[in-house]
Amino acid sequence: MKANIVTVTMNPALDKMITVESLSPGKLNRAKSVRIDPGGKGINVSKALSTYGVSQVATGILGGQVGSLISSMLKEYGIKQDFLFVSAQTRVNIKILDKSTGTITEVNEQGPEISYETLKVFFNKLKRLVKNADMLVLAGSLPVSIPSCFYSTCIQMAEKMNVKTIIDTEGEALKLSIQSKPYAIKPNVNELEQIAERPLNSIEDIAAEAKRLIKNGIRLVLVSLGSSGSLLCFGDGIYKAEPLTVDVKSTVASGDAMVAALAYCIRTGSTPEEMVKIATAAGCLTASKEGSDMASWSEIRQFYGNINIKEM
């Protein structure tokens, strides 16, 4: 299956958002509303990219009835998909939105056990897909049974095929991925601190760590700063973008929207200034959506010009 961008979700999920008026831990809570969305970071990236008019394919591992439901839901987005199906059940992630405070409590399942043989079959599938692509997006957590070096191996494979990689994960998988020098990474501040192995207490600290990663061989670092916007380090330039003012409803997929925007901008040869504006607008506008709904390219195009940036 040929596509320009391949997104990988090794630990997909059915996201179930339950809204309550006021969450009372340890007591009976009645739901005001319930919605389900196909989830997992790579899948969210694909959902966003489906509005950008780019050729893409979503892959990863899906299993059981939950996996079949996710696959059927993705068809409604018009997303090309080439998942490996297994018998073990894909996880369900519960998110409880407390309307009185606006806070979201998350309970995420670990995901199914994936055998070495299954992983080998999937890697061979991925290799075939990447051969026909020009960008690989590796996003989200790994099931506990998959070694932390898996993403690193994927980056090295893509590099040999001259395919750019974007990585968005955390913990040991992120640290090992950095060593394989992906083209771009999209950490939040906490994840950047995991890489630095020290607190980053100021925007200057964050910029310095992003610059260090650039010097070590990563071409582009986009740091999501939550309500403070984002920071992009590319070449010799460092750009800080202020966020759009929006009515925040769910931040679940904001970072994934930024990754999708970044992939689009890299493919289209956008300037660093355009990249940080478009990615920041994508994250902010997605935060104004319910559940893991993604901002569309038409919305982003309408508002990204309003983003204020400064070069540091």
Radius of gyration: 19 Å
Strand and helix order: EEEHEHEEEHEHEHEHHEEEHHHE
Shape: globular
Strand content: 15-25%
List the strand order in the largest sheet.
5-4-1-8-9-10-11-12-13-14
Tally of individual helices: 10
The computed structural class is: alpha/beta
Oligomer: single chain
Describe the structure in your own words.
With 312 residues, this protein is of the alpha/beta class. It has one domain (5-311): Ribokinase (UDP-N-acetylmuramoyl-L-alanine:D-glutamate ligase, 3-Layer(aba) Sandwich). Helices cover 37% and strands 24% of the residues. It has helices at residues 41-49, 64-75, 116-131, 150-160, 171-179, 189-196, 203-215, 254-268, 272-287, 297-303; strands at 5-9, 13-20, 31-39, 56-63, 84-86, 91-98, 104-108, 135-139, 164-168, 184-185, 220-224, 230-234, 237-241, 309-311. Strand 9, helix 5 (171-179) and strand 10 form a beta-alpha-beta unit. Helix 4 (150-160) runs parallel beside helix 5 (171-179). The mean pLDDT is 95.
What would a concise description of this structure say?
The chain has 312 residues and is α/β, with parallel strands linked by helices.
Walk me through the topology.
Elements: E1 5-9, E2 13-20, E3 31-39, H1 41-49, E4 56-63, H2 64-75, E5 84-86, E6 91-98, E7 104-108, H3 116-131, E8 135-139, H4 150-160, E9 164-168, H5 171-179, E10 184-185, H6 189-196, H7 203-215, E11 220-224, E12 230-234, E13 237-241, H8 254-268, H9 272-287, H10 297-303, E14 309-311
Parallel strand pairs: 1-4, 1-8, 2-6, 4-5, 8-9, 9-10, 10-11
Antiparallel strand pairs: 2-3, 6-7, 11-12, 12-13, 13-14
Helix pairs in contact: 1-8, 4-5, 8-9, 9-10
